[in-house]
Design goal:
Blueprint: E1 2-6, H1 13-22, E2 27-33, H2 45-52, E3 59-64, H3 68-72, E4 80-86, H4 91-100, E5 104-109, E6 127-131, H5 146-156, E7 163-167, E8 185-188, H6 190-193, H7 198-206
Parallel strand pairs: 1-2, 1-8, 2-3, 3-4, 4-5, 5-6, 6-7, 7-8
This protein binds D-xylitol-5-phosphate and zinc ion.
């Protein structure tokens, strides 16, 4: 199980990104909220590029935005591993666009969304991002019925090549719920970024 750390909840993005880069996290999880797809807005694209341009850790980018194409073009000099979008009217086109640019692509499934909604994209994606909180802000509680959804996804996963990632409300307690759930990537924000020693906290999650 790999760990991606989100800096969304931090009140000093620069310092937080530096600490994630110095930690043993596998990825930086880049949460971008546009104030349209979700109510909150947390970035200006030029600032985001400046913040991330020297990142040694690969970027696991999560776009909570209504118009991903407008943003993706700015990522060309960054250390991008994958770009995940939410389900939009033109998801297929955007996923293909991400792939054409040479990045891995992913789609996110909100707590109130069923896997059937995105079934047409499952053979296209590299990552299925299962949201265990409502997208838009960090520090929320893990939604328990996500566990049932993970079981459903696991029952079909073998037919595809995507990895599963879980995002939201992960801490030393909720991580236990994921034991034996076959999750490839765990995203954690506030639990790690509110801690003094990122590595110690990351290791607690990796221990399950
Ligand atoms: C929610 C974001 C998550 C979140 C994770 O909109 O996509 O990545 O920030 O943060 P915590 O771990 O604090 O829920
Ligand atoms: Zn996220």
């Amino acid at each position: 199980m790999k760990i991606a750390v989100s800096y969304l909840s931090s009140n000093n993005y620069l310092d937080c990104i530096k600490k994630i880069n110095e930690s043993n996290a596998d990825f930086i999880h880049v949460d971008l909220c546009d104030g349209k797809y979700v109510n909150t807005k947390n970035f200006e694209i030029k600032d985001t590029i400046k913040l991330l341009k020297n990142s040694q850790k690969p970027l696991n980018i999560h776009l909570m935005v209504a118009n991903p194409k407008k943003i993706i073009k700015y990522f060309k000099n960054l250390n991008v591993e994958s770009i995940t979008i939410h389900n939009l009217s033109n998801s297929k086109k955007i996923l293909n666009y991400i792939k054409k640019k040479g990045y891995k692509c992913g789609i996110a499934l909100n707590p109130n969304e069923n896997i059937d909604l995105i079934k047409d994209y499952l053979n296209l994606i590299d990552e299925l991002l299962i949201m265990s909180v409502v997208p838009g802000k960090g520090g929320q509680s893990f939604i328990n019925n996500t566990l049932e959804k993970i079981d459903n996804i696991n029952s079909i996963k073998n037919s595809y090549h995507f990895i599963t990632a879980i995002d939201g409300g992960i801490n030393n307690e909720t991580i236990k719920l994921l034991k034996d759930k076959n999750i490839d990537l765990v995203i954690s924000g506030s639990y790690i970024t509110n801690s003094k020693d990122y590595n110690e906290t990351i290791n607690k999650l990796k221990k399950i």
